[in-house]
Amino acid sequence: MNNLAKKPSAEHAQILDQFIKEAEQRWDIPSITAQVLRSQRQRRFTDAALRIGQWKPWDHQPFKDASKHYIRSVAPILDDLEYLARYPRTAEIPPSALKTKMELENSASMQKNVADV
């Protein structure tokens, strides 16, 4: 491995000079340096302030009231509420209608069995 920075050939020196000229044309290097140093000072200041008192992480995690995000009910309408909240819809008929149809079929079946006895 050769360290080209310690022994630059004429070709490498020319490429380096071209690179430096292009960088100076594209970017305001002193301004970027000043912005980086200012940002580092601000982050050090913030870090020092956050270390005083109760520690809090840098990332913000907003409080979420779970009572507003989840359905908390044992009412018969619960299945319909879950059906309406679901996307994509799982069926064309809401669950309460399915239950009613199934209950009707079951009761008709039970009545037939009773009649057979």
From TrEMBL:
Pfam families: Choline_sulf_C. InterPro entries: Choline_sulf_C_dom. Residues 35-87 form the Choline sulfatase enzyme C-terminal domain. This is Choline sulfatase enzyme C-terminal domain-containing protein.
